[in-house]
Amino acid sequence: MSDIEEKFPRALWVRLIVYIAVGHVFAAFVYLLFEVGAK
Questions:
Q1: Which domain of life is it from (predicted)?
Q2: CA within 20 to 30 Å of 13's CA: 19, 20, 29, 39, which one?
């Protein structure tokens, strides 16, 4: 377990989670924009 943690620092995991969260929020916003625009 410690070997995996050495290869992937905590900062990298935090950055990855932030990128995924922002990506999902952006995708949801674009989807909502198209849904409202279609009506």
A1: Bacteria
A2: 29
